[in-house]
Design goal:
By secondary structure, the chain is an alpha+beta fold. It is built from 2 helices and 3 strands, in the order ββαβα. Strand 1 and strand 2 form a beta hairpin. It is globular, with a radius of gyration of 13 Å.
Length: about 100
């Protein structure tokens, strides 16, 4: 679910900014369910965000991942939530 920057985030959802500093695409805002925070693949991405940004950001949580790789990660998490178990390997080039 991609949202306008000025839209309010509903209860149970979290705004994140996804992108790479060196990428020309810039950062893109997504609104994701907080249930993602418990997923092992998303936890790895949070660990990477901690290494890069130290969690000291204002505004949405910033995730160091290409937009394409994030969309793939999001798809995998949603697929698993529909009871299709996928391997927990994270082999994206940027996440």
């Amino acid at each position: 679910m991609q949202e306008d920057k000025k839209a309010k985030v509903k209860k149970g959802w979290l705004a994140v900014e996804v992108g790479l500093e060196e990428d020309d695409e810039g950062f893109q805002r997504f609104v994701i369910p907080i249930s993602y925070l418990d997923h092992p693949l998303f936890k790895r991405l949070l660990e990477k965000a901690h290494e890069v940004y130290s969690y000291h950001t204002t505004g949405p949580l910033r995730l160091p991942c290409s937009i394409d790789d994030f969309l793939n990660l999001k798809w995998r998490i949603e697929k698993e939530s529909n009871h299709h178990r996928l391997p927990l390997t994270l082999s994206f080039r940027s996440c």
